[in-house]
Amino acid sequence: TSFKSHLVLVLHSLQYFYTGSSGLTAFPEFVAVGMVDGVQIGYYDSNIQGIVLKQDWMERYARDDPDYLERLTGIAKGDQQWFKVNIGILKKIFYQIGGIHIYQKMYGCEWDDDDDSTDGYEQYGYDGEDFISLDLKTLTWVAAVPQAVPTTQSLNQDKAGLQYQKYYYTKECVGVLKTALSYGESTLQRTDRPRVSLLQRSPSSPVVCHATGFYPDRVVVFWRRDGQELHEQVDPGEVLPNHDGTFQVSVDLNLTAVPQEDWGRYECVVQLRGIEDISTPLDPSGITIPIIIGFLVLLLTAAAAAVGVFVYKKRNGEWIKLSKRTDT
C-alpha cells in the first residue's frame, strides 16, 4: 500500500540560547550557546569569560576572520551585564526579593535553501515562563504576561529598532548562517544512515523501535500495520543527541491486545532525507532482550548531558534542569 512521505523540506538554522541566573551558586551567572543546524558551535559563560569554539570548522572560520573571537567575546560580555541588570528589573516587576531566578533568551534565524525563504524569532522567558516575544511577520513585540505589557509598549514605539530587528533576522543573521554552512559543509550537510533495532523490556512491555547514529536530526520514525500508518497504540519519543554528533530516537508500539501470531503485520519505518526508507518488520525472534534497555537508558542520560544547552523550569516548588534542543 502506498503512503505519503512525512519528510518536509529541511531548513537550516542558526540559534542562540542565553541563560542568566540569580541565586544559583553551582551554575554560571550567564551562559551563551550558539548552534547551527542543531550542532553546537560555540560556548561562553561568566566564569571562563571567553568563547570556546566547539567545531574544527569554526576554528577555520575564526582563523579567516582574526577579529572574530575578540568581537564575539565583547558582545557576550556586554550581554552578560545586560542580563544581570534585567534580572534586577524583573525581580522588581514581579515584587521578588532573594531566591533563585532564571532569565532566558532564545533567538535565531532559518533559511530554506530550496526556495531561499527566511524566518527568524526572538523570545524571552523568566522563571520558566514566557515573558515577551517578537512577531517578525507583524514586526511587533507581544507580551505573554501582564507584567510584560509596559516593556512591549515601549519596544513597539521604537520603529527604528523594529526595522533593525527585521534587517537582522532576514539579512544579517541569515548571512552568518550561510557562511557557517559553507565552512561546515562536510559536517552539517552530510547524511548518516541510522541503525534500527527493535527492543522490548518484557513480554508485556511495548515494542520499541530505536533508531540511532543518524544525521541530520530531522528524521521521521513511525509504525505501520498492513502498510497503513498507525496513530493509535504508538508513543513517539523525542530526538536526542548522541555524544558523537549524531542523533537517536525511539517510538513505542503497544501490542498488549495483539496476538503474537499477528505481529508480522507490523513494521517500523524510518525516513531520512537522502536515503531510501528503512523498513524493519516486527519479528518476535529478532527483538533485543531487556539488558539492552538498561544500557539504552544510560546512553540517553549521557546524550542529554552532552547537549550543553539547558532550560530551567520550576516544578513542585523546585528548579529542575531540562535539556533544550529545539526552538520551541
UniProtKB/TrEMBL annotation:
GO terms for cellular component: external side of plasma membrane; extracellular space. Residues 194-279 form the Ig-like domain. InterPro entries: Ig-like_dom, Ig-like_dom_sf, Ig-like_fold, Ig_C1-set, MHC_class-I_related, MHC_I-like_Ag-recog, MHC_I-like_Ag-recog_sf, MHC_I/II-like_Ag-recog. Gene3D superfamilies: Immunoglobulins, MHC class I-like antigen recognition-like. The keyword Metal-binding does not apply. It holds the Pfam family C1-set. GO terms for biological process: immune response. It comes from the Eukaryota. The keyword Transmembrane applies. Keywords: Glycoprotein, Membrane, Transmembrane, Transmembrane helix. The chain crosses the membrane at residues 287-312. Belongs to the MHC class I family. This is Ig-like domain-containing protein. It comes from Gadus morhua.
